From TrEMBL:
GO molecular function, one term: dTDP-4-dehydrorhamnose reductase activity
Native source organism of the sequence: Paraburkholderia haematera
RmlD-like substrate binding domain mapped to chain residues: 15-305
Top-rank taxon: Bacteria
Enzyme Commission number(s) of this protein: 1.1.1.133
Protein name per the record: dTDP-4-dehydrorhamnose reductase
Length: 313
């Protein structure tokens, strides 16, 4: 596996962010704008289902770093659209990595806990056996393999339970439902760590900054990147409601009216892993950083929603 090479001081090329208009892409543009010359493209310019657009975009920009923030993330819909999920989540990352290798640059890609089956009793390590339960999980695993097979300089960051100010996510769904519904039923037999996109973006920016400025870079490979701690979806939902209530937001539901249910009762089209916990020791050692508890990110985003009145929109 190829390791990253440090760059001479002052020799900084462009950073290309693909999928720049999505939940993660918006935060990456914020963080990476402080690191180097940023070129941000969305699906209107670079559709990850189009090999021609991918190649044309990369060859036009000639970036030193490609950051792939795009992806097909409709987990249940992927069950009936496997070809599209594979094109966006597997073929596109491999093609981006090949273009990065041709330029002698770095490929940064994001993957998911869904590459595991969730049967392990403890947090997953990077080299644990993969066994995706869904089309989405399989497509993301195939994307990891495609990037690794190219043997370009690369980092693959696996994460879980992502949320932020942009796009749709569990935090926003619960916050909005809590204003109009007097009871909620939430899955209690799946465990993980809610992770803000701001954390993913800031860690990425730190690593890319060191790469571009000649510091000793992380070796190529897979790294787990999530907030610390753990909860289940039911506990997560209760925390959201309790935090909003404490902030004076008028709610229809009370924490005790959030009912725990089994995942089987929810009836999703795609199976989810029961254990989404990822061990982040490798990443923390490589960058010499600490990662915050999941509650810190959740509380910060909820405060931004309340203060900015975006929650009410």
């Amino acid at each position: 596996m190829r390791d990253l090479e440090s760059r001479p001081d002052g020799e900084t090329g462009a950073i290309l962010v693909v999928g720049a208009h999505g939940q993660l892409g918006v935060e990456l543009c914020r963080s990476l704008s402080l690191v180097g010359r940023l070129v941000a493209v969305g699906r209107d310019t670079c559709d990850l289902a189009s090999a021609e657009q991918i190649v044309a975009t990369v060859r036009s920009v000639k970036p030193q770093v490609i950051v792939n923030a795009g992806g097909y993330t409709a987990v249940d819909a992927a069950e009936t659209s496997p070809e599209l999920a594979h094109a966006v989540n597997a073929a596109a990352p491999g093609l981006l990595a090949a273009e990065a290798k041709a330029l002698g640059g770095l490929m940064v890609h994001y993957s998911t806990d869904y590459v595991f089956d969730g049967a392990k009793a403890s947090p997953y390590l990077e080299d644990d056996a993969t066994a995706p339960l869904s089309v989405y999980g399989r497509s993301k695993l195939d994307g990891e393999i495609a990037v690794q097979n190219v043997d370009a300089a690369h980092w693959i960051f696996r994460t879980s339970w992502v949320f932020g100010l942009q796009g749709g996510n569990f935090l926003k769904s619960i916050a909005r439902a809590a204003r109009s519904r007097t009871s909620l039923s939430v899955v209690a037999d799946q465990v993980g760590a809610p992770t803000p996109v701001s954390l993913l973006a800031d860690v990425t920016a730190l690593a890319v900054h060191r790469y571009l400025n000649g510091a000793s870079p992380m070796p190529s490979g897979v790294y787990h990147l999530t907030a610390q701690g753990e909860t289940n979806w039911h506990g997560y939902a209760r925390h959201i409601v309790e935090t909003l209530a404490a902030a004076g937001v008028p709610l229809a539901v009370k924490p005790e009216d959030i009912l725990p249910i089994a995942a089987a009762e929810y009836g999703s089209a795609a199976a989810r892993p029961a254990n989404s916990r990822l061990d982040t020791s490798k990443l923390r050692a490589a960058l010499n950083i600490d990662l915050p508890d999941w509650r810190e990110g959740v509380d910060r985003v909820l405060a931004e929603f309340v203060e900015g009145r975006r929650l009410l929109g």
